[in-house]
Amino acid sequence: MQESADLLNIDMNASHLFDSHSWLGNDDHDSFVKSVFDEIAPPSNDNDVPSWLIGSVSETSSSSKKSSHPSPFTDDSERSSKKLKCQQQSTVAASSLHSLCCSGKASVDDIREQLRIDPTAAARPRSIAKTIKSYDPVSGKIVTKQTCENYKYPLNLAIRHKLDLAIIKLLLEAEPHVSHLLDGHQKETSLHVMLKYSPQFVKGIDTLLLHHPPPISPLDRHQNNLLHVACRYGAPIDVLRHLVIIYPEALQQRNFLSELPVQVAQRNLVMCSTQVANFVWQQTNKKLRKV
Known about the structure:
Blueprint: H1 2-7, H2 27-39, H3 51-58, H4 74-103, H5 108-117, E1 129-136, E2 141-148, H6 154-160, H7 165-174, H8 190-197, H9 202-210, H10 226-233, H11 237-246, H12 261-267, H13 274-290
Antiparallel strand pairs: 1-2
């Protein structure tokens, strides 16, 4: 029984690291931080013991008499039961946190409560099922299909479903490193997801840029950096300025089609404004002259 207790032991402690803005070293970056932060608002029941735990202790053969002495394993069984219950609660909490981020109706208190139950739930990927309607060309009808959410981390699910900025900050502070992980079919980071689904949400994008930013501009499955995605989905000029300040090297990076961000902007003038296209072109020329 002691071995069972050891196997069921789980670590419920989580260390939460928050990366202050140590990556900003020069005056340009310091002035950028000040301008951006001016815009961003500060934001049991012990009777539920499995039968296999107590069976080996309480069961006796039909021919033997019950012992009148208390079992020496009772304390171990109780401890094992409590640890198993904690493990079950952790699994449920992870599922609840992911489902809340997909609902579109989650509040800050709901997210905070789930993180209190299991602080590490924000760092665990989990597939969440969903129902979609699509056209079936064979039957010529609209049919209902079961599929899964594209993203598996709570932070990216919250960004995808456009939850409040306060919830995004809460998940970001709980597990900052999740914003660097590649997620979804296109292997995107949290900044890719934000630029893709909420390109006009300047405060949300600035929050991700300032809280534990990647050291270099991250790339998705097709080698698109953040400037490629911003130009493709029509991010405003302020977002482009901030990205160029933090990741100037992204101006010269090519994607799998061998395109620079300026070429994506010029090709996509329907989504990308002329002002943005001119800005990216000027910054690219300036960068090339220095080289």
